[in-house]
Structure prediction request, 551 residues.
Amino acid sequence: MQETAIALIQLGAVFFGLGLLGRVAWKFGISPIPLYLVGGLAFGSGGLIPLHGIDEFTHLASEIGVVLLLLLLGLEYSASELTTGLRKSWTAGLVDIALNAVPGAAAALLLGWGPVGALAMAGVTYISSSGIIAKVLGDLGRLGNRETPVVLSVLVFEDLAMAVYLPVLTAVLAGASLLGGLTSVGISLLAVTVVLVVALRYGRFISAVVDSPDHEVFLLKVLGSALLVAGIASQLQVSAAVGAFLLGIAISGSTAENATRMLEPLRDLFAAMFFVVFGLNTNPSSIPPVLGVAAALALVTTATKIATGWWAAKRQGIAAMGRARTGAALVARGEFSIVIAGLAVASGHVQDELAALATAYVLLMAIIGPIVARYVEPVSGFLLRDRSKSGAHG
Amino acid sequence: MDVEVTPLPGIGVREDFATRAGRRIGVVSHRDGKFELIVARQDDPDAAVASIPLTPEEAVTLAGLLGSPQLVSRLSEQHRDISGITTRQLPVVAYANRTLGDTALRTRTSASVVAVVRAGVAHPSPGPEFLFHTGDLAVVVGTAEGLTAAADILTGG
Prediction:
């Protein structure tokens, strides 16, 4: 009994502490993710307060956090939105990959982390945080802006790219041979295609399986099916996260809306746990040595994301100020960079510095992103020598 | 009028059009049923000068306000000759999901509902079985006192 009491106290202290951190974050209008990471750094190995006895729970909770993050990402989009998004934005999506995956990969190669590290870091710097970006666009009242669909379609493409990238990464990290890797890529591509086709044609049947008018039954069915699919996908080496993402896409319509509403608090809880555990497993003393690289990467990938947005918006006939806003909106990196780094670190096939670098990078980008998005108008107004006084309306 | 419909993946849909004066104006409909009224900036048509969040009730009320002034001014015109009779438009707050008969408005105030405006569309001469929805506006004709009393009843006084 004594052990249970200690575990409860530790867990309670962690959640309460995160609550306080989250409150501070929203007060300054930034995402709480960097603060959760800092919170995790403060506990655990090499941190101020070591935690014992709840490792098993926190480990499983953080896995569930990843599954829920990806499930809700999938629920956000319907299959038809994904396919039209893909058709409309694939060129911008490819530019996005070329500009933003390369800096991460290059940094990893320069640090001598080899091709596996390069693949992981490419993902870390490539993927924008759709969570932070959606929040920032809403807060800044930009949802009605003409460039916003461009921002969203780039995010849609990135999320689809994740569905292909994660299984590849999982296979490579598992030390699979080239053939094994290709098989896994084949399986995941097949799965993505099948799910999209099934969701487009028969989405309502899948929705009907999990749907229920009773809240409790619905919650259990959705959560249960997500964990089942994630587990099976993980067993097939396709990555648990992708399984959850595909299930999310397959569930559509009002069922998806209800599921989102119901699972959001659960996701916030378990995802917070995931960020803390990631911070926990990172030794704070390993951060300062990589801080310089992280800052350089942050600088370069801020510029490359702005270039990506600028290019994508220009193709849609959006004026200079709108192009600048598109680029700035895309800068934030967050939860998915940590998901990728988490996968890489858990496999043990990459250097420990990768976790430290990813942590420092996301800490910077999750803070820089919203700031850049907020102040892009006055700054680019000055740079573009816009005759109009931008920002005059507040 | 050309209304441009743009899907916003993960958020909802944006519907907007350009006014004759060249301003872009429209609505972002969120998936969860909320609305945002958007008005484009004059110097930068890509951006919104205002985006005003509206609950479904508020959106319906706004639609009613925009759709019905002509109706009231027409009715006022007709009643000008009859002294002591005025027309007012009253929001139906207290009787949402109940019928016009339930209000017993004519017996209680001697004012009568000549039309109900819902989402910008006028439903003339509603019968006692007419079911009010949230956001409906009742066009009421009566004496000044009668209208004050009617306003109290309909808005929940």
Observations:
- The beta strands of chain B are 4-8, 12-18, 24-30, 35-40, 48-54, 86-91, 112-118, 121-124, 137-142.
- The radius of gyration of chain B is 19 Å.
- Chain B touches chain A at residues 6-11, 14, 16, 24, 26, 28, 31-32, 36, 38, 40-41, 43-51 (CB under 8 Å).
- Residues 90 and 138 of chain B are 5 Å apart (CA to CA).
